[in-house]
Write a structure and sequence with these properties.
This protein is 54% helix and 14% strand. It has six helices and six strands. A hairpin with a 3-residue loop joins strand 3 and strand 4. The strands form two sheets. Strands 2-1-6-5 form a four-stranded antiparallel β-sheet. It has a two-stranded antiparallel ribbon with strand order 3-4. The protein is rod-shaped, with a radius of gyration of 29 Å. The longest helix has 35 residues.
């Protein structure tokens, strides 16, 4: 009984130590999840489940840091594009709008008001045709629409008449991994 008691006491001490170490790792994860990317994680060198948990926490920390960095860079790029006077619209590879800078939104507000939050370039052009925003298409809307949709990045910029008194130089570029950029 004394030997069994000693073994149980030793196992209890081991389990309490594992609980305490696990608690430290969970605290580290909580700090990481709350945005603190410089958290040190103990016990990475252990060869047991505590070490596995610690190493997984480091992977989580590094991934969280990478996501935070990417979000900050994305915010910087969005801010930069929004400062341009030039109109910029980006449509994903599926054709659905993913970004419109403030110049594009302001100039095309009357067209965008009729569109759902997610729309395609074709949908934008069709709504513009409905509003009479493209006077160069009068009487030949389908042909005009087909020409605009078939433009590629190899084509030169195209002059597009806009009602009432503007002519825009429009460039359509395909960007691998993103989609189509209209400027």
């Amino acid at each position: 009984l004394a030997t069994d008691r000693k073994a149980l006491d030793a196992r209890q001490i081991e389990l309490i130590e594992k609980r305490d170490r696990t608690s430290l790792i969970v605290q580290s994860m909580t700090k990481i999840a709350s945005g603190k990317s410089s958290v040190s994680v103990p016990d990475q060198d252990r060869a047991d489940e505590i070490g596995d948990m610690a190493r997984a926490t480091v992977v989580f920390r590094d991934a969280t840091t990478a996501v935070q960095t990417a979000k900050a860079e994305q915010a910087r790029l969005i801010y930069a594009f929004d400062q341009l006077d030039e109109q910029v619209a980006i449509f994903g590879e599926d054709g659905v709008s993913i970004f419109l800078n403030s110049a594009f939104r302001a100039f095309n507000a009357h067209i965008l008001a009729d569109l759902p939050e997610a729309f395609t370039y074709e949908g934008f052009l069709q709504a513009g045709l409905k509003h009479g925003a493209f006077p160069g298409a009068d009487g030949q809307a389908q042909e005009w629409l087909s020409r605009r949709l078939s433009a590629t990045c190899n084509d030169a910029p195209v002059e597009v008449a806009r009602a009432p008194d503007r002519t825009l130089l429009v460039r359509q570029m395909t960007v691998d991994g993103i989609g189509t950029v209209i400027s």
